[in-house]
């Protein structure tokens, strides 16, 4: 009889790692974090998308689906490789309570440029090989970033000259010739990123830790992906959006959510055998071991809102090629896809069928588990309650879009708090860890806990508030003391061992 393997993981984006320079990196703190997970018998590390962020610094609105975020590059590692001087870093550290993307870029980008220029005087033997391997996306990305800097605006569709907006060959060649050095620098930045990231991933894998990555289903309108793939998107001849993405009105929003991403022209994807999507999944799985597809329901149908609408109210469901797309990915990557389907929200039978027919685990969120029937009795059939979760699921206390579990619980009314306490047989002070215990004890294949919950943080530790844009989003920063503490994961480790989520 086949044994059902069950694993435990922690959700923490690298930007949240302790830092000296405004934002977490993939340097020493990341390696220390891996060591901490290893010691606690944690075998999964879930992150958010790694792409270079733009306005708002949301990792779900990256400027490239294939590139890495330059500000994650570790400067100390560049110094160790003799690409920076000690005077570049000594005495330059600055403290902050939240990630400060602006200050981090202001400090780091000139040093990355200095390191890249020094590197180019005597490049590593594998640099040309890296450029050749990644050229199919790297050339356009480097050019795009230089153009964004040139015009001080990533909105290629409205802020760039028409010849560049429409990718006229003569206009592109002129920029490539005039800005060749700046373009080359961005290629070096990507070389630095992938060199450091691949080394970190290899280190984690050697310790038995798999990394769960993330693919946002849509691309940002101001991304190189949109600029170079206009035929694959619902854009008109002037590259203006015909429709925008979103979700319909529901119990949380009377007018729905208008996200603003361009939507796919699926007929064009199908003509190419879905090659762009196949490449996207393949490349992400080179960087990670497992990948979560954000808004998986969009593979079955997308909510399309006409351009220039102020809300998502007047949208409609438009069918997507679900199974054909997944079949194309399977034909390239194999039938046993290491994919997690983010199936939250209002999920219809066709979405469930697409998930289940392809044996993809869905997500269960414990903060959504405590509901009532119409007569006021407990809804003991709620699909998110641990006793109702099946094996092929990934259970969370909450995600990056939720409040911390402590913040969530203490914001409940008295009736809801009472339900939670009764279910957990817990007092107020231990609800968070009792909920973590329920996740670990569940039958679910994977149990993932946000680091903020393991640290018992209140709402100040929240990572994101959906449909808002502000400096508090994507900016939670882990304290160095929490990383150094030898005992703050002991109870988590105890549960992992007790409930069989670690196979030594």
Low-confidence stretches: none
Residues in helices, as a percent range? 40-55%
Number of discrete helical segments? 20
* Rounded average pLDDT: 96
Please summarize the sheet with the most strands. Answer: 8 strands, parallel
Query: Which shape, going by the Cα principal axes?
Result: globular
Distance between the termini: 20 Å
Main structural class: alpha/beta
Number of strands: 12
Strand content: 5-15%
* Estimated radius of gyration: 23 Å
Order of strands, main sheet, comes to: 9-6-3-2-1-12-11-10
Notable traits:
504 residues, alpha/beta, eight-stranded parallel sheet, four-stranded antiparallel sheet
Summarize, please.
The chain contains 20 helices and twelve strands. The chain is an alpha/beta fold and 504 residues long. The strands form two sheets. It has an eight-stranded parallel β-sheet.
Question: How are the SSEs placed, and which strands pair?
Answer:
Elements: E1 7-11, H1 28-39, E2 44-46, H2 75-80, H3 86-89, H4 101-121, H5 127-151, H6 156-159, H7 162-165, H8 169-178, H9 180-206, E3 210-216, H10 224-228, E4 243-247, E5 257-258, H11 266-271, H12 275-287, E6 290-294, E7 301-306, E8 316-319, H13 322-333, E9 339-341, H14 349-357, E10 362-365, E11 393-396, H15 405-410, H16 414-424, H17 431-441, E12 446-450, H18 451-454, H19 480-484, H20 490-498
Parallel strand pairs: 1-2, 1-12, 2-3, 3-6, 6-9, 10-11, 11-12
Antiparallel strand pairs: 4-5, 4-7, 7-8
Helix pairs in contact: 5-9, 12-13, 17-20
